[in-house]
Amino acid sequence: MTRSGVQPTTARRSDLLDALADLFLAEGFMSFTLDQLTERLRCSKSTLYTLAPSKEQLSRTVIKHYFRRSAAAVEDKVSAVDGDVEVYLNSVAEELRPAQPAFYRDLDLFPPGREVYEQNVVYATQRVQELIAKGVAAGVYRPVDSEFVADLIANALARIGRGEVARATGIDDSRAFQLLSDTVMGGLRA
């Protein structure tokens, strides 16, 4: 541990956070006890406590880790094609594909997790707005108001994350993200 009280990032720590994120995405996180998590991950409680001092803080830490990991993967794909909006939206859909309804349900019921999700929606909105504006300026997309399109996307992302789209349409979250991408790209290219 450093003087600031922050645990240094290690391969083991990253592996544990990845494993927890994968478990949370597949099964949700609210119903797990620390004992169940230690059993599933084959580690001790003290190992989990190196990640966070409580189950609530552990859940928030894992959710933040998942969204950071996903954002980095999306940005890697986007930078490889010089900032394409379609690649960005499709990469977001791909990164969110493992998230099952239980994860979104728990995320909606867990204010610290919902806050992390909403912060990521704000970031994604800003990023999409930048990419659209760049594409419009380069003549790749038709002239649109990038702020307006980004705001529509933000609202759709928020509704998907709260489970509202799935409840209203029966469309799972991953498919909803893909349909959002298809719709936005159809409007930009029209």
From TrEMBL:
GO terms for molecular function: DNA-binding transcription factor activity; transcription cis-regulatory region binding. Residues 33-52 bind DNA. InterPro entries: Homeodomain-like_sf, HTH-type_TetR-like_transc_reg, HTH_TetR, Tet_transcr_reg_TetR-rel_C_sf. Keywords: DNA-binding, Transcription, Transcription regulation. Pfam families: TetR_N. Signal peptide: none annotated. Residues 10-70 form the HTH tetR-type domain. This is TetR/AcrR family transcriptional regulator. It comes from Nakamurella flava.
